[in-house]
């Protein structure tokens, strides 16, 4: 009996690696500490009613952002471990298997469990406020999306202490990812972690398309909509088309692994190249999914801190939509070197290059928004300005990669690694940081400490260039990605050491940001006035910070693009508002219809987690338990008719008065 | 923007140019030893130049605009908060990238056809064929004409076109000798053709570029380019002094694990073809099977079919 338990435990838990043992112990201790603190301060009920069951889009957004920051930490630690190994491969800091697992999880976590939730967090908090809406179109679904993301992320993350992490690369090409190449459970954690969170992502995409198309305040025509909402629309539409492909691809891989199907194995007549086609039909649009909202953020920030309208609004909208369209015609550039033939390669080379055109136009438009503006440089603006040269260089190396015959020399090399980190960090991360800093006071009612933020900014930027510029050179020196060691004669070590130093500078920058947040919470200066930067242009700045749970006491009537700014201008000039604005502002308060909180999303996602865990280990009873739970919670939801309520006029008045008092 | 940062960005551009035009012999891609790599290098430089023509002014413009329009007391810069559209300007910057991309597209399409890896290289010398098999985690090279085989080491004569036939026993790999030209995927169930030529003697670094699992990093090899005489002498030497690669030896090589450099005086007949077609069901007539047989070197005798059927259950 004891032997069976021992044997099971050694298979179930990852053993034998001191680094992982350390992680296991610290995870255990952290969990005990959390439970203790919540119990000691009697916070369980508060946590459940205020957060875990909430359907308030702003709170869901905050939960997304907290998860994203934790995942940024984990993915970042993965990156630093890899960089240590590569700076001194002779030390054998990580063995080959551990190294392979780490670069796989680094990629998956950064894209799917860091960039995506950070993006969804910002969508959730800002988009309804910008639209003048009280909530997203489907608040219950929104909560469900978050918890599905959370369940998927947790399922993926436990793999490194339980069962072993996936180690076939972040896109898991078969046949390596098939049962023949990866017999362990790591690959199953990969499939189910992504599959479960992917359902949430797809639902979010649909939710925001509907929200943007149906929930805009009266008067807000599409061509008056703020740029961030436009970018959300572009990104959400792309999600709706791309994520089903991912779901199907992973499901086919699952069938291969579980039922011995042969979709992607040569024996039995399958074709691994089909997997590559499918995964990149999702994968390339995916990078545009995460970068388009960053473009939206830059457009908002640059207009606000130039005190000027965004230049070329129509061009910007057209560029966003065409990028999202063309993103579906680029997938084959990920395997130019797979012998598709000259005509296919030429076609995809050109369609890939075409994306550079609208992207270039956007850069010019941002520049000319600043031109003849009055620029100030708080942290969000710093990130925006730093983004431009970074993205121009990254975009340029992207165009170089799209030149198919030249790509034969770049493909799979460090040049590629440097390129996509430059566009993803320089574009997505810089963009989301700009967004976080910009909207932080809107979320919490206090600003982050600017001095520490500038330290973080400079360290991030310096660290970035020190880390990734040498990688372009390494690529041209013939260094291939995913090597855990290399021959000293190749002369790669000096540049790898430099790159590692850069990585640690970025790590330090992250610590500055954590310090900045902690410091700002400790010494916060409450600022609930609403228009925290004094330069807000769009509707979210017209209501108190943080926004009351019903957002707008009265639904505003939109007249202009940058409506709030125009309103302030009119007041400064002593002009009266147009009649419809006055009518909207002076209308009597009415009771507000709101959705009730619900525990069903978190419980249903919990059952999905159980089912996913069962699938990973092939424990039939657990699969059945999980899926039955999912069905039961769905039924419970469909028979629950008591899911809404009204906020009374008295309560709205009380909340508005309190917010007004806070503002003065 | 702080002046520090402007200086930094200028410095970076200079550094990029230095790196791209650098010809230190460590930059394998920029130090080509054959016509394919050399054409690829030209293409890299041409396309970089086209991109830089746009990128450098944009970055310079960013610096100037950020500096000039920063908010400060008695700024002389114009402030026009409602200046948000100019058809002329927008036409210009839709135009510039369109023109640049059009030029680049034309060059790319042209080179894509010229440098298609399956196109034979013109030469007076008779091309030699080398079959390359990616095994877990070693490279197997077989010379069908010389009937010798090597592991993690390949040798061929200078100025002679080499036709590499690539396949893989399991995971997908990518065969890359940066000094001679770009990589091509090696996949199980098919044979890809990569034509390369070295016009200078030397020992060139080669590697697998697509991740294949645990000891992927050990899959590096040297490509030794020598004179024709030296090469012929080497072939004779291998034939006479080395042992043969037997079926049992092949099975051992197919086991996951790394391997030292090795040479064999002969190898089992149709080894490459059998590895490539090991998964093909007998009598299969799908397009896929067709594709494979047409690309592969033809088997010499009928024994092949029986041989390959033994491997069905792998």
UniProtKB/TrEMBL annotation, chain A:
InterPro entries: Cyt_c_oxase-like_su1_dom (IPR023616), Cyt_c_oxase-like_su1_sf (IPR036927), Cyt_C_Oxase_1 (IPR000883). Pfam families: COX1 (PF00115). The keyword GTP-binding does not apply. Pathway: Energy metabolism; oxidative phosphorylation. The chain crosses the membrane at residues 20-41, 62-81, 101-127, 139-162, 189-213, 233-255, 287-305, 317-334, 346-368, 380-404, 416-440, 452-474, 494-515, 598-615, 621-639. Residues 42-559 form the Cytochrome oxidase subunit I profile domain. This is Cytochrome c oxidase subunit 1.
Automatic annotation (TrEMBL), chain B:
NCBIfam families: CyoA. It comes from Candidatus Pristimantibacillus lignocellulolyticus. GO terms for molecular function: copper ion binding; cytochrome-c oxidase activity; oxidoreductase activity, acting on diphenols and related substances as donors, oxygen as acceptor. It is an enzyme of class 1 (oxidoreductase). Belongs to the cytochrome c oxidase subunit 2 family. It is found in: Cell membrane. The gene is cyoA. Catalyzes quinol oxidation with the concomitant reduction of oxygen to water. Subunit II transfers the electrons from a quinol to the binuclear center of the catalytic subunit I. Residues 286-314 are annotated as: Disordered. Residues 21-119 form the Cytochrome oxidase subunit II transmembrane region profile domain. Its main location: membrane. It is a multi-pass membrane protein. GO terms for cellular component: plasma membrane. It catalyses: 2 a quinol + O2 = 2 a quinone + 2 H2O. This is Quinol oxidase subunit 2. Residues 125-237 form the Cytochrome oxidase subunit II copper A binding domain.
């Amino acid at each position: 009996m004891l032997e069976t338990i021992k044997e099971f435990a050694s298979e179930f838990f990852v053993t034998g690696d001191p680094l992982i043992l350390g992680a296991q112990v610290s995870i255990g201790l952290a969990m005990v500490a959390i439970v203790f603190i919540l119990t000691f301060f009697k916070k369980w009920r508060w946590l459940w009613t205020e957060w875990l069951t909430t359907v308030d889009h702003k709170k869901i957004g905050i939960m997304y952002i907290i998860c994203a920051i934790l995942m940024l930490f984990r993915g970042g630690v993965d990156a630093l471990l890899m960089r240590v190994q590569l700076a001194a491969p002779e030390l054998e800091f990580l063995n080959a298997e551990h190294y392979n697992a780490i670069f796989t999880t680094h990629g998956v976590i950064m894209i799917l469990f860091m960039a995506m939730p950070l993006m969804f967090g910002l969508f959730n908090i800002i988009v309804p406020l910008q639209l003048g809406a009280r909530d997203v179109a489907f608040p219950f679904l929104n909560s469900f999306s978050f918890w599905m993301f959370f369940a998927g992320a947790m399922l993926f993350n436990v793999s490194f202490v339980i069962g072993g992490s996936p180690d076939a690369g972040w896109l898991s090409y078969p046949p390596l990812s098939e049962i023949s190449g990866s017999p362990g459970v790591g690959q199953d954690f990969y499939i189910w972690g992504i599959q479960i969170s992917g359902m949430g992502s797809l639902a979010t995409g649909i939710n925001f398309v509907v929200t943007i198309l149906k929930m805009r305040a009266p008067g807000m025509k599409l061509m008056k909509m703020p740029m961030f909402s436009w970018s959300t629309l572009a990104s959400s539409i792309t999600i709706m088309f791309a994520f089903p492909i991912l779901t199907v691809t992973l499901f086919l891989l699952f069938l291969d692994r579980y039922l011995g199907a042969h979709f992607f194995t040569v024996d039995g007549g399958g074709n691994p190249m089909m997997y590559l086609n499918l995964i990149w039909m999702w994968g390339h649009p995916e990078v545009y999914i995460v970068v388009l909202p960053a473009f939206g953020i830059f457009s908002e920030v640059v207009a606000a801190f130039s005190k000027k309208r965004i230049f070329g609004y129509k061009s910007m909208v057209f560029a966003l939509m065409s990028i999202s369209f063309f993103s579906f015609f680029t997938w084959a550039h990920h395997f130019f070197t797979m012998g598709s033939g000259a005509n296919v390669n030429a076609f995809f080379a050109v369609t890939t290059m075409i994306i550079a055109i609208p992207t270039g136009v956007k850069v010019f438009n941002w520049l000319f928004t600043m031109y003849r503006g009055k620029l100030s440089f708080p942290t969000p603006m710093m990130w925006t300005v730093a983004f431009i040269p970074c993205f121009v260089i990254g975009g340029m190396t992207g165009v170089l990669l799209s030149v198919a015959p030249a790509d034969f020399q770049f493909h799979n090399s460090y040049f590629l690694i440097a390129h996509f980190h430059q566009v993803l960090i320089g574009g997505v991360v810089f963009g989301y940081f700009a967004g976080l800093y910009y909207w932080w006071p809107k979320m919490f009612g206090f600003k982050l400490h600017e001095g520490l933020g500038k330290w973080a900014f400079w360290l991030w930027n310096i660290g970035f260039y020190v880390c990734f510029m040498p990688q372009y050179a390494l690529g041209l020196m013939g260094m291939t990605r995913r090597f855990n060691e290399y021959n000293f004669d190749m002369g790669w070590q000096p540049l790898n050491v430099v790159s590692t130093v850069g990585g640690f500078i970025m790590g330090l920058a992250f610590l500055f940001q954590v310090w900045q947040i902690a410091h700002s919470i400790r010494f916060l200066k409450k600022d609930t006035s609403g228009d925290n930067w004094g330069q807000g242009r769009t509707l979210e700045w017209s209501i108190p910070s943080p926004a009351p749970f019903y957002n707008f006491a009265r639904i505003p009537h939109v007249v202009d693009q940058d409506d709030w700014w125009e309103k302030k201008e009119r007041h400064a000039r002593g002009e009266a508002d147009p009649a419809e604005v006055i009518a909207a502002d002076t209308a009597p308060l009415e009771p507000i219809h709101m959705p009730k909180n619900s525990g069903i999303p978190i419980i249903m996602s919990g059952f999905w987690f159980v089912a996913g865990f069962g699938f990973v280990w092939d424990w039939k009873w657990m699969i059945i338990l999980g899926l039955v739970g999912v069905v039961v919670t769905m039924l419970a939801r469909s028979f629950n008719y008591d899911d809404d309520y009204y906020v009374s006029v008295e309560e709205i008045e009380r909340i508005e008065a309190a917010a007004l008092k806070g503002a003065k | 923007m702080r002046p520090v940062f402007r200086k930094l960005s200028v410095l970076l551009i200079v550094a990029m140019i230095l790196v791209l035009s650098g010809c230190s012999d460590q930059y394998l891609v920029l130090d080509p030893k054959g016509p394919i790599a050399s054409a690829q290098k030209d293409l890299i430089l041409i396309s970089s130049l086209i991109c830089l023509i746009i990128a450098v002014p944009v970055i310079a413009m960013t610096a100037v605009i950020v500096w000039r329009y920063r908010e400060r007391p008695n700024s002389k810069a114009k402030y026009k908060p409602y200046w948000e559209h100019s058809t002329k300007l927008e036409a210009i910057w839709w135009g510039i990238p369109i023109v640049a991309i059009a030029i680049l597209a034309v060059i790319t399409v042209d080179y894509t056809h010229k440098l298609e890896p399956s196109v034979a290289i013109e030469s007076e010398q008779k091309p030699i064929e080398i079959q390359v098999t990616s095994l877990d985690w070693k490279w197997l090279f077989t010379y069908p004409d010389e009937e010798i085989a090597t592991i993690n080491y390949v040798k061929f004569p200078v100025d002679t076109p080499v036709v590499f036939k690539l396949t893989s026993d399991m995971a997908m790999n990518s065969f890359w000798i940066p000094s001679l030209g770009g990589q091509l995927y090696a996949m199980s169930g098919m044979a890809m053709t990569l034509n390369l030529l070295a016009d200078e003697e030397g020992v060139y670094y080669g590697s697998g570029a697509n991740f294949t699992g645990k000891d992927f990093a050990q899959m590096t090899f040297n490509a030794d380019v020598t004179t024709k005489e030296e090469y012929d002498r080497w072939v004779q030497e291998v034939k006479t002094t080395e042992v043969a690669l037997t079926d049992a030896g092949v099975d051992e090589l197919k086991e996951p694990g790394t391997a030292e450099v090795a040479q064999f005086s002969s190898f089992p007949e149709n080894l490459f073809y059998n590895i490539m077609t090991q998964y093909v069901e007998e009598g299969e007539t799908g397009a896929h099977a067709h594709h494979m047989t047409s690309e592969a070197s033809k088997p010499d005798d009928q024994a092949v079919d029986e041989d390959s059927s033994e491997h069905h259950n792998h």
